[in-house]
Design goal:
This protein has about 130 residues and is an alpha/beta fold. The chain has a single domain, classed as Roll (2,3-Dihydroxybiphenyl 1,2-Dioxygenase, domain 1). The protein has three helices and eight strands. A four-stranded mixed sheet has the order 1-4-3-2, covered by helices on one side. A four-stranded mixed sheet has the order 5-8-7-6. Strand 7 and strand 8 form a beta hairpin. The longest helix has 12 residues. The chain is globular. The relative contact order is 0.20.
């Protein structure tokens, strides 16, 4: 068994697609109309056949409450691994990304947290 799709709840699929593709650099994989919403996935440019990130609408009432509680408590919805956190932090800052935590060593990793503009905090992490 292996993970093939993981999802992140977003408040606007088009806005999320633009952010995750054009700002973060993930590559579009699937864009399938499904009524009001889409099956909209992206993958890492370093692993195009790897795990897909599903930009899932937060249409369920519990989803909005869950997302708001996580964000209010400063808890990232997910974490992405990076090779050079300082370079990634600087690249994303230049692209206008708002960080709530700059790169901070935490045991065997250095982490930073940013707002994805779609209702989530996202962590990036570099292992040492």
């Amino acid at each position: 068994m292996k993970i093939v799709v993981t999802s992140i709840l977003v408040d606007d699929q088009a806005k999320a697609h633009a952010f995750y593709h054009h700002v973060l650099g993930f590559e579009p994989r699937h864009d399938i109309p499904m009524g009001k919403y889409r099956w909209l996935t992206l993958t890492s440019p370093n692993d195009p056949n790897g795990v897909e990130l599903l930009l899932e609408p937060d249409a369920h009432p519990a989803a909005k409450t869950y997302k708001a509680a996580l964000k209010q408590d400063g808890i990232p919805a997910t974490s992405f691994g990076v090779r050079d956190i300082q370079a990634e932090y600087e690249r994303l800052c230049k692209a206008g990304v708002h960080f709530t935590q700059s790169p901070t060593p935490v045991g065997p990793v250095t982490v930073a947290v940013f707002d994805d503009t779609c209702g989530n905090l996202i962590q990036i992490a570099q292992r040492h």
